[in-house]
Design a protein that fits this description.
The chain has ten helices and ten strands. It has 335 residues and is of the alpha/beta class. It binds 5'-O-[(R)-(carboxyoxy)(hydroxy)phosphoryl]adenosine and zinc ion (ZN).
Protein backbone atom coordinates (compact mmCIF):
# COMPACT_ATOMS: atom_id res chain seq x y z
CA UNK A 1 0.00 0.00 0.00
CA UNK A 2 1.44 3.38 -0.96
CA UNK A 3 0.22 6.92 -0.26
CA UNK A 4 1.14 9.68 -2.69
CA UNK A 5 0.66 13.45 -2.61
CA UNK A 6 0.60 15.29 -5.95
CA UNK A 7 0.59 18.92 -7.00
CA UNK A 8 -0.78 20.27 -10.30
CA UNK A 9 0.08 23.87 -11.19
CA UNK A 10 0.64 23.84 -14.96
CA UNK A 11 -1.76 26.69 -15.78
CA UNK A 12 -4.39 28.56 -13.79
CA UNK A 13 -5.57 25.95 -11.29
CA UNK A 14 -3.60 25.17 -8.16
CA UNK A 15 -4.43 21.62 -7.10
CA UNK A 16 -3.28 19.11 -4.50
CA UNK A 17 -4.44 15.51 -4.13
CA UNK A 18 -3.67 12.55 -1.93
CA UNK A 19 -4.23 9.02 -3.25
CA UNK A 20 -3.58 5.58 -1.85
CA UNK A 21 -3.36 2.19 -3.54
CA UNK A 22 -1.64 -1.06 -4.32
CA UNK A 23 -0.90 -2.60 -7.70
CA UNK A 24 -3.92 -4.41 -9.15
CA UNK A 25 -6.66 -2.71 -7.15
CA UNK A 26 -8.57 0.56 -7.59
CA UNK A 27 -6.85 3.67 -6.30
CA UNK A 28 -8.53 5.55 -3.44
CA UNK A 29 -8.67 9.33 -3.93
CA UNK A 30 -8.41 10.47 -0.29
CA UNK A 31 -8.44 14.20 -1.10
CA UNK A 32 -8.56 16.36 -4.22
CA UNK A 33 -8.36 20.12 -3.72
CA UNK A 34 -8.58 22.59 -6.59
CA UNK A 35 -8.18 26.33 -6.14
CA UNK A 36 -9.29 27.96 -9.38
CA UNK A 37 -7.82 31.26 -10.49
CA UNK A 38 -10.49 31.85 -13.14
CA UNK A 39 -11.93 34.99 -11.44
CA UNK A 40 -8.39 36.41 -11.25
CA UNK A 41 -7.76 36.02 -14.99
CA UNK A 42 -11.28 36.72 -16.21
CA UNK A 43 -10.83 40.50 -16.23
CA UNK A 44 -7.83 40.04 -18.57
CA UNK A 45 -9.76 37.72 -20.93
CA UNK A 46 -7.19 34.92 -20.54
CA UNK A 47 -4.40 33.55 -18.34
CA UNK A 48 -1.71 36.05 -17.27
CA UNK A 49 1.36 33.90 -16.44
CA UNK A 50 2.82 36.26 -13.81
CA UNK A 51 -0.49 36.40 -11.93
CA UNK A 52 -0.86 32.63 -12.17
CA UNK A 53 2.55 31.79 -10.69
CA UNK A 54 2.27 34.34 -7.89
CA UNK A 55 -1.12 32.96 -6.94
CA UNK A 56 0.07 29.33 -7.02
CA UNK A 57 2.69 30.29 -4.45
CA UNK A 58 0.20 32.12 -2.27
CA UNK A 59 -2.33 29.28 -1.99
CA UNK A 60 -0.16 26.16 -2.19
CA UNK A 61 0.80 25.71 1.46
CA UNK A 62 -2.78 26.00 2.72
CA UNK A 63 -3.97 23.67 -0.03
CA UNK A 64 -1.40 20.99 0.93
CA UNK A 65 -2.48 21.26 4.57
CA UNK A 66 -6.16 21.01 3.63
CA UNK A 67 -5.57 17.98 1.38
CA UNK A 68 -3.65 16.14 4.13
CA UNK A 69 -6.31 17.06 6.68
CA UNK A 70 -9.20 15.92 4.42
CA UNK A 71 -7.32 12.72 3.65
CA UNK A 72 -6.64 12.08 7.33
CA UNK A 73 -3.00 11.54 6.45
CA UNK A 74 0.03 13.00 8.22
CA UNK A 75 2.96 14.31 6.17
CA UNK A 76 5.07 11.48 7.63
CA UNK A 77 2.72 8.88 6.13
CA UNK A 78 3.22 10.07 2.54
CA UNK A 79 5.39 7.56 0.67
CA UNK A 80 6.02 9.61 -2.50
CA UNK A 81 5.48 13.09 -3.92
CA UNK A 82 4.57 13.98 -7.50
CA UNK A 83 4.08 17.15 -9.51
CA UNK A 84 3.28 18.09 -13.08
CA UNK A 85 6.55 18.67 -14.90
CA UNK A 86 5.02 19.81 -18.22
CA UNK A 87 3.60 20.79 -20.59
CA UNK A 88 2.41 24.14 -19.24
CA UNK A 89 3.49 27.63 -18.26
CA UNK A 90 7.13 27.54 -17.08
CA UNK A 91 6.66 29.89 -14.13
CA UNK A 92 3.55 27.99 -12.98
CA UNK A 93 5.09 24.53 -13.39
CA UNK A 94 8.11 25.62 -11.36
CA UNK A 95 6.03 26.44 -8.28
CA UNK A 96 4.33 23.02 -7.97
CA UNK A 97 7.36 21.06 -9.03
CA UNK A 98 9.73 22.86 -6.65
CA UNK A 99 7.29 22.51 -3.75
CA UNK A 100 6.85 18.76 -4.35
CA UNK A 101 10.61 18.27 -4.66
CA UNK A 102 11.13 20.21 -1.43
CA UNK A 103 8.67 18.00 0.43
CA UNK A 104 10.22 14.84 -1.04
CA UNK A 105 13.68 16.05 -0.10
CA UNK A 106 12.67 16.97 3.47
CA UNK A 107 10.90 13.64 3.98
CA UNK A 108 13.60 11.65 2.15
CA UNK A 109 10.95 10.08 -0.08
CA UNK A 110 10.82 9.64 -3.89
CA UNK A 111 9.74 12.46 -6.21
CA UNK A 112 8.00 11.83 -9.56
CA UNK A 113 7.66 14.39 -12.35
CA UNK A 114 4.45 13.63 -14.26
CA UNK A 115 3.38 14.63 -17.77
CA UNK A 116 0.15 16.64 -17.50
CA UNK A 117 -1.20 14.89 -20.60
CA UNK A 118 -0.62 11.47 -19.06
CA UNK A 119 -2.70 12.69 -16.12
CA UNK A 120 -5.60 13.58 -18.43
CA UNK A 121 -5.11 10.41 -20.49
CA UNK A 122 -5.38 8.02 -17.51
CA UNK A 123 -8.07 9.98 -15.63
CA UNK A 124 -11.05 8.03 -17.09
CA UNK A 125 -9.68 4.91 -15.35
CA UNK A 126 -9.01 6.46 -11.94
CA UNK A 127 -11.66 4.28 -10.26
CA UNK A 128 -10.72 1.06 -12.08
CA UNK A 129 -8.35 -1.70 -11.07
CA UNK A 130 -6.34 -1.42 -14.30
CA UNK A 131 -5.86 0.75 -17.38
CA UNK A 132 -7.00 -1.46 -20.28
CA UNK A 133 -5.86 -1.17 -23.90
CA UNK A 134 -7.95 1.54 -25.55
CA UNK A 135 -8.23 4.40 -28.00
CA UNK A 136 -7.97 7.80 -26.29
CA UNK A 137 -9.02 11.32 -27.19
CA UNK A 138 -7.62 14.12 -25.01
CA UNK A 139 -9.41 17.43 -25.58
CA UNK A 140 -8.13 20.29 -23.45
CA UNK A 141 -7.31 23.97 -23.73
CA UNK A 142 -3.83 23.22 -25.06
CA UNK A 143 -4.17 19.83 -26.77
CA UNK A 144 -6.31 17.72 -29.08
CA UNK A 145 -4.70 14.33 -29.21
CA UNK A 146 -5.70 10.87 -30.44
CA UNK A 147 -3.63 8.04 -28.97
CA UNK A 148 -3.52 4.30 -29.09
CA UNK A 149 -2.96 3.05 -25.53
CA UNK A 150 -1.63 -0.45 -24.96
CA UNK A 151 -1.38 0.13 -21.20
CA UNK A 152 0.18 2.62 -18.76
CA UNK A 153 3.28 4.16 -20.35
CA UNK A 154 2.65 2.50 -23.73
CA UNK A 155 1.24 5.22 -25.96
CA UNK A 156 1.28 5.76 -29.73
CA UNK A 157 0.22 9.09 -31.17
CA UNK A 158 -2.31 8.72 -33.99
CA UNK A 159 -3.29 12.34 -34.58
CA UNK A 160 -3.24 15.84 -33.12
CA UNK A 161 -4.25 19.36 -34.01
CA UNK A 162 -2.24 21.18 -36.65
CA UNK A 163 -3.20 24.59 -35.24
CA UNK A 164 -5.63 25.45 -32.41
CA UNK A 165 -6.67 22.92 -29.76
CA UNK A 166 -10.40 22.27 -29.41
CA UNK A 167 -10.58 24.09 -26.05
CA UNK A 168 -8.54 26.97 -27.45
CA UNK A 169 -11.09 27.31 -30.28
CA UNK A 170 -13.92 27.38 -27.72
CA UNK A 171 -12.07 30.06 -25.73
CA UNK A 172 -11.27 32.20 -28.80
CA UNK A 173 -14.82 32.01 -30.16
CA UNK A 174 -16.10 32.81 -26.64
CA UNK A 175 -13.97 35.95 -26.72
CA UNK A 176 -15.34 36.92 -30.16
CA UNK A 177 -18.85 36.54 -28.75
CA UNK A 178 -17.81 38.66 -25.75
CA UNK A 179 -18.54 35.82 -23.35
CA UNK A 180 -16.54 35.57 -20.08
CA UNK A 181 -13.29 33.54 -19.94
CA UNK A 182 -13.06 30.56 -20.31
CA UNK A 183 -15.32 30.36 -23.36
CA UNK A 184 -15.97 26.60 -23.32
CA UNK A 185 -18.58 26.39 -20.56
CA UNK A 186 -20.14 29.71 -21.67
CA UNK A 187 -20.54 28.50 -25.26
CA UNK A 188 -22.08 25.27 -24.03
CA UNK A 189 -24.58 27.29 -21.96
CA UNK A 190 -25.46 29.64 -24.86
CA UNK A 191 -25.69 26.72 -27.31
CA UNK A 192 -28.49 25.07 -25.31
CA UNK A 193 -30.87 27.81 -26.49
CA UNK A 194 -29.59 27.84 -30.09
CA UNK A 195 -30.14 26.14 -33.43
CA UNK A 196 -27.07 24.07 -34.37
CA UNK A 197 -28.10 24.12 -38.04
CA UNK A 198 -28.36 27.93 -38.22
CA UNK A 199 -24.84 28.38 -39.62
CA UNK A 200 -23.04 25.93 -41.87
CA UNK A 201 -19.50 26.04 -40.47
CA UNK A 202 -16.63 23.94 -41.91
CA UNK A 203 -15.88 20.45 -40.56
CA UNK A 204 -12.15 20.76 -41.30
CA UNK A 205 -10.26 17.59 -42.23
CA UNK A 206 -13.23 15.41 -41.22
CA UNK A 207 -13.06 13.30 -44.36
CA UNK A 208 -9.27 13.39 -44.85
CA UNK A 209 -7.61 9.98 -44.50
CA UNK A 210 -5.25 11.13 -41.69
CA UNK A 211 -6.25 11.57 -38.03
CA UNK A 212 -5.12 15.17 -37.51
CA UNK A 213 -7.39 18.08 -36.63
CA UNK A 214 -7.59 21.75 -37.58
CA UNK A 215 -9.81 24.29 -35.84
CA UNK A 216 -8.39 27.63 -37.01
CA UNK A 217 -10.50 27.67 -40.21
CA UNK A 218 -13.63 27.18 -38.14
CA UNK A 219 -12.59 30.03 -35.84
CA UNK A 220 -12.07 32.30 -38.88
CA UNK A 221 -15.45 31.26 -40.32
CA UNK A 222 -17.08 32.37 -37.05
CA UNK A 223 -15.22 35.68 -37.22
CA UNK A 224 -16.32 36.32 -40.84
CA UNK A 225 -19.93 35.50 -39.92
CA UNK A 226 -19.78 37.99 -37.06
CA UNK A 227 -18.35 40.67 -39.35
CA UNK A 228 -20.86 39.96 -42.12
CA UNK A 229 -23.90 39.95 -39.86
CA UNK A 230 -22.77 42.86 -37.72
CA UNK A 231 -25.18 43.25 -34.81
CA UNK A 232 -27.77 40.84 -36.23
CA UNK A 233 -26.19 37.59 -35.12
CA UNK A 234 -27.86 35.30 -32.57
CA UNK A 235 -25.19 34.35 -30.02
CA UNK A 236 -27.13 31.17 -29.15
CA UNK A 237 -27.39 30.03 -32.81
CA UNK A 238 -23.77 30.84 -33.52
CA UNK A 239 -22.57 29.08 -30.34
CA UNK A 240 -24.69 26.01 -31.14
CA UNK A 241 -23.50 25.86 -34.77
CA UNK A 242 -19.85 26.30 -33.77
CA UNK A 243 -20.12 23.67 -31.02
CA UNK A 244 -21.79 21.23 -33.42
CA UNK A 245 -18.97 21.65 -35.96
CA UNK A 246 -16.32 20.92 -33.29
CA UNK A 247 -18.24 17.91 -31.96
CA UNK A 248 -18.79 16.35 -35.39
CA UNK A 249 -15.08 16.52 -36.16
CA UNK A 250 -14.02 15.18 -32.74
CA UNK A 251 -16.50 12.31 -32.86
CA UNK A 252 -15.89 11.49 -36.53
CA UNK A 253 -12.11 11.34 -36.16
CA UNK A 254 -12.33 9.36 -32.91
CA UNK A 255 -14.56 6.75 -34.53
CA UNK A 256 -12.21 6.48 -37.49
CA UNK A 257 -9.22 6.07 -35.15
CA UNK A 258 -11.05 3.49 -33.02
CA UNK A 259 -11.93 1.42 -36.08
CA UNK A 260 -8.36 1.60 -37.39
CA UNK A 261 -6.79 0.72 -34.03
CA UNK A 262 -9.00 -2.32 -33.46
CA UNK A 263 -9.47 -1.34 -29.78
CA UNK A 264 -12.89 -1.95 -28.22
CA UNK A 265 -12.74 0.80 -25.58
CA UNK A 266 -12.76 4.54 -26.30
CA UNK A 267 -11.70 6.98 -23.54
CA UNK A 268 -12.39 10.70 -23.45
CA UNK A 269 -10.57 13.17 -21.19
CA UNK A 270 -9.54 16.83 -20.78
CA UNK A 271 -11.46 20.02 -20.04
CA UNK A 272 -13.59 19.95 -23.20
CA UNK A 273 -14.91 16.50 -22.19
CA UNK A 274 -17.00 18.43 -19.61
CA UNK A 275 -19.17 19.43 -22.59
CA UNK A 276 -22.44 17.53 -22.30
CA UNK A 277 -23.27 17.72 -26.00
CA UNK A 278 -19.87 16.18 -26.81
CA UNK A 279 -20.34 13.46 -24.20
CA UNK A 280 -23.80 12.63 -25.60
CA UNK A 281 -22.61 12.59 -29.23
CA UNK A 282 -19.62 10.39 -28.37
CA UNK A 283 -21.88 8.08 -26.34
CA UNK A 284 -24.26 7.68 -29.29
CA UNK A 285 -21.50 7.09 -31.85
CA UNK A 286 -19.73 4.55 -29.62
CA UNK A 287 -23.03 2.79 -28.90
CA UNK A 288 -23.82 2.53 -32.62
CA UNK A 289 -20.34 1.22 -33.43
CA UNK A 290 -20.19 -1.23 -30.49
CA UNK A 291 -17.40 0.50 -28.56
CA UNK A 292 -17.40 0.93 -24.77
CA UNK A 293 -17.00 4.62 -23.91
CA UNK A 294 -15.21 5.65 -20.71
CA UNK A 295 -15.22 9.36 -19.82
CA UNK A 296 -13.39 11.01 -16.92
CA UNK A 297 -15.63 11.74 -13.95
CA UNK A 298 -16.60 15.46 -14.26
CA UNK A 299 -14.40 16.52 -11.32
CA UNK A 300 -11.37 15.02 -13.08
CA UNK A 301 -12.01 16.46 -16.59
CA UNK A 302 -10.62 19.95 -16.04
CA UNK A 303 -7.23 20.39 -14.42
CA UNK A 304 -6.89 18.63 -11.07
CA UNK A 305 -4.19 16.92 -9.02
CA UNK A 306 -5.98 13.57 -8.56
CA UNK A 307 -5.14 12.67 -12.17
CA UNK A 308 -1.47 13.57 -11.58
CA UNK A 309 -1.49 11.57 -8.34
CA UNK A 310 -3.04 8.58 -10.12
CA UNK A 311 -0.44 8.63 -12.91
CA UNK A 312 2.26 9.17 -10.27
CA UNK A 313 1.08 6.27 -8.13
CA UNK A 314 1.06 3.88 -11.11
CA UNK A 315 4.65 4.88 -11.86
CA UNK A 316 5.68 4.74 -8.19
CA UNK A 317 4.20 1.24 -7.79
CA UNK A 318 6.12 0.28 -10.93
CA UNK A 319 9.36 1.28 -9.18
CA UNK A 320 9.97 4.55 -11.02
CA UNK A 321 11.23 7.82 -9.58
CA UNK A 322 12.55 11.09 -11.00
CA UNK A 323 15.77 12.86 -10.12
CA UNK A 324 15.39 15.83 -7.78
CA UNK A 325 17.42 17.73 -10.38
CA UNK A 326 14.91 16.90 -13.13
CA UNK A 327 13.74 20.09 -14.83
CA UNK A 328 10.27 21.25 -15.81
CA UNK A 329 9.46 21.18 -19.56
CA UNK A 330 6.92 23.74 -20.85
CA UNK A 331 6.64 21.85 -24.17
CA UNK A 332 6.96 18.30 -22.84
CA UNK A 333 5.48 15.89 -25.41
CA UNK A 334 3.61 12.78 -24.27
CA UNK A 335 5.00 10.59 -27.05
O1 LIG B 1 -7.95 20.32 -19.28
P1 LIG B 1 -8.12 21.75 -19.01
O2 LIG B 1 -8.72 22.16 -17.69
O3 LIG B 1 -6.79 22.54 -19.13
C1 LIG B 1 -5.81 22.27 -20.08
O4 LIG B 1 -5.02 21.31 -19.86
O5 LIG B 1 -5.81 22.98 -21.10
O6 LIG B 1 -9.04 22.33 -20.20
C2 LIG B 1 -9.45 23.65 -20.22
C3 LIG B 1 -10.27 23.85 -21.48
C4 LIG B 1 -10.62 25.31 -21.75
O7 LIG B 1 -10.31 25.61 -23.08
C5 LIG B 1 -12.12 25.35 -21.50
O8 LIG B 1 -12.80 26.33 -22.27
C6 LIG B 1 -12.53 23.96 -21.90
O9 LIG B 1 -11.52 23.14 -21.39
N1 LIG B 1 -13.82 23.59 -21.33
C7 LIG B 1 -14.93 23.35 -22.07
C8 LIG B 1 -15.97 23.10 -21.17
N2 LIG B 1 -15.47 23.17 -19.90
C9 LIG B 1 -14.16 23.48 -20.02
N3 LIG B 1 -15.11 23.36 -23.41
C10 LIG B 1 -16.35 23.09 -23.87
N4 LIG B 1 -17.41 22.86 -23.06
C11 LIG B 1 -17.28 22.85 -21.71
N5 LIG B 1 -18.31 22.61 -20.93
ZN1 LIG C 1 -5.16 20.09 -18.53
Amino acid sequence: MATLLAIESSCDETAVAVVRGVAGSAVEVLASEVSSQIPLHREHGGVVPELASRNHLLVLRALVEKALCDAGVGMGEVDAFAATSGPGLASSLLIGSTAAKGMACAADKPFLGINHLEGHLLSPFIDRTAVPEHLALIVSGGHTLLLDVEGPGKYTKLGSTRDDAAGEAFDKVGKMLELPYPGGPEIEKAAREGNAAAYDFPRSMLHDPHLDFSFSGLKTAVLYTLQREEGKVSVADLAASFQQAVIEVLVGKTMKAARQSGRRIVALSGGVSMNRALRAAMEEACGNAGFELVISPPEFCTDNAAMIAFAGLLRHLGGERSELGADIHPNLPLV
